[in-house]
């Protein structure tokens, strides 16, 4: 029996940052851009806020509050109702509830009752409207999260706290995750989201996280949802994950992350070799693999001499997203 | 007297990563792409290796070994001579010497006698040809370098070793630089280039650098040369800088970088506040400012709560370059 080929780091990035690049394949990129409808609002007509599949655009064309134009270039879906955040948000909520009612959209079956912000262009980072979390991939808007890697030990002797997702989770059951990871709901700062998730998912007390967690950049990618994400495939999900490190080597000695809800089965302390093996065998949730690769790049566990795809990997970990950002 | 407005971190990135983005301004980007000639070789006709200004393309159209087509889309400049690295390199050398002879190209007055590699597409990272370092911006090909930041002290108490460039340097005289920085000539690995430059520029012994220097990713940007770079303005310079950290806090206690050639006037140990002030006043060489911002992001001295442009900054530090990469 031959063992299956291990995934390379670039393979893992391709699985998560799966939307084509204009320069890598101009034709494939154009096909994609001609397929999707651009999400707009009347006060910012030159700004695309997200990309929608034709099936979603068709549904919206039958709902009030929306105008769909498939003769323009690009094709557009415009939210016509609302002149400020709260009236736009109310219209979007009504829409999402109506879409959920039809039962046509599997992603809405995991209704979260949690709002995600959609930002406008310009330095003010105005929230144009909020949208139910489970609906955000239907509209292809950027979503934001936090991911933290807790570790102990130095250099190549480092050991990383890796949780395994519960086998009963609807998305990516039993796959490996980052020590702490979660979405940032509207109105919460990244660091406050991190404090909340650290307690909820890993029982890490806020005073510890406040003292030892260090922001270390963000990872951005453009995911085309596949079957493992649950719900419709082909939906567009540009994402930004703020990344943090939690070095438990000295001050955090003896700290052990433990599950505090039913999302995580348990935590394991893995050496670098074991982490690499799990990455190669595809045992990590795709976006968690990407955050782990970023961790290894930043800490020098990957370098150009060993990794031929180094420069492309480092760029792809930080994709420039073509939408206003928070 | 009012003090001049300080540059923001995004201003500093805009100065270095100055080539437009397709999504930020499609029109400006198209204008740029229609202005430039795409550098090609016959064995890889769909691969653009660099962008050339019309003035350079005009000169090449009068030289043997080149074919210039300004009726195609995009306009192209093709190296017609050579079937392998050495014969192509010889043709490019002959061309560069002829261009230097005319005296028309100011950048060639700083002839370096040092070769830079131009890579082909695909995982093999084949060197298609080598080119004289000073000529690489005339052909708009990607160049590679190493930048290392040496520092001591922890958290916000960190102090960074910052050199000031010699006042007699032709490019960016008297501006601040990174502790160690230099180009990677053809055939040298990034880490070996770092060892060499560390000794040459900062008198840091190789055993120290081998023990303490840590790779921490790379910074990629697309620079349109301005007057401060010397020579012609408007030339295109996509660059990749491999970045390293040198933490002198414990094992490196007492180590003091000192000039070893005439490129650097001296080194100063600066606190974070001082570094920020110098960045804001434009006292750093543009690409060194970008490497310093990357350092501050990776170490958590910049975060989303304090820096509104955080996500754009982190993406822009890692631009996806539209050429084959080394």
Describe the structure.
2 copies of one chain form a homodimer. Helices cover 30% and strands 24% of the residues of chain A. Chain A is α+β, with helices and mostly antiparallel strands and 326 residues long. Chain A has 2 domains: 9-17 and 143-316, Nucleoside Triphosphate Pyrophosphohydrolase (Alpha-Beta Complex); 36-139, Transcription Regulator spoIIAA (2-Layer Sandwich). In chain A, the strands form 3 sheets. In chain A, strands 7, 8, 9, 10, 11 and 12 form a 6-stranded mixed beta sheet that branches. Chain A has a 4-stranded mixed beta sheet with strand order 2-1-4-3. In chain A, strands 5-6 form a two-stranded antiparallel ribbon. In chain A, strand 3 and strand 4 (76-79) form a beta hairpin. In chain A, helix 1 packs across helix 9. The N and C termini of chain A lie far apart (50 Å). Chain A binds chain B through residues 21-23, 123, 125, 189-191, 214-218, 220, 240, 242, 245, 297-300, 302-305, 308-312, 314-322, 325-326, and chain B through 21-23, 123, 125, 189-191, 214-218, 220, 240, 242, 245, 297-300, 302-305, 308-312, 314-322, 325-326.
């Amino acid at each position: 029996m031959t063992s299956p080929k291990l995934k390379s780091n670039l393979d893992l990035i391709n699985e998560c940052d799966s939307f084509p690049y204009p320069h890598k394949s101009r034709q494939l990129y154009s096909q994609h851009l001609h397929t999707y409808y651009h999400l707009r609002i009347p006060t910012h007509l030159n700004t695309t806020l997200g990309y929608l599949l034709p099936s979603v655009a068709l549904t919206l064309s039958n709902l009030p509050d929306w105008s769909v134009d498939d003769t323009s270039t690009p094709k557009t879906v415009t939210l016509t109702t609302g002149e400020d955040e709260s009236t736009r948000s109310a219209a979007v909520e009504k829409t999402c509830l109506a879409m959920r009612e039809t039962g046509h959209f599997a992603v809405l079956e995991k209704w979260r009752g949690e709002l995600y912000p959609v930002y406008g262009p310009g330095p003010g980072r105005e929230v144009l409207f909020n949208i139910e979390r489970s609906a955000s991939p239907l509209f292809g808007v950027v979503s934001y999260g936090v991911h933290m890697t807790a570790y102990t030990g130095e250099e190549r002797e480092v050991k990383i706290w890796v949780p395994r997702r519960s086998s009963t989770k609807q998305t990516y059951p039993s796959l490996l995750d980052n020590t702490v990871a979660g979405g940032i709901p509207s109105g919460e700062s990244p660091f406050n989201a991190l404090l909340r998730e650290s307690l909820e998912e890993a029982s890490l007390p806020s005073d510890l996280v406040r003292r030892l967690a260090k922001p270390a950049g963000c990872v951005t990618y453009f995911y085309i949802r596949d079957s493992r994400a649950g719900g419709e495939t082909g939906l567009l999900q540009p994402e930004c994950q703020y990344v943090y490190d939690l070095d438990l080597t000295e001050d955090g000695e003896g700290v052990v992350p433990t599950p505090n809800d039913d999302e995580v089965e348990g935590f394991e302390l893995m050496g670098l070799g074991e982490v690499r093996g799990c990455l190669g065998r595809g045992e990590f949730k795709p976006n968690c693999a990407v955050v782990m690769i970023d961790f290894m790049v930043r800490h020098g566990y990957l370098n150009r001499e060993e990794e031929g795809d180094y420069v492309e990997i480092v760029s792809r970990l930080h994709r420039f997203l073509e939408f206003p950002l928070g």
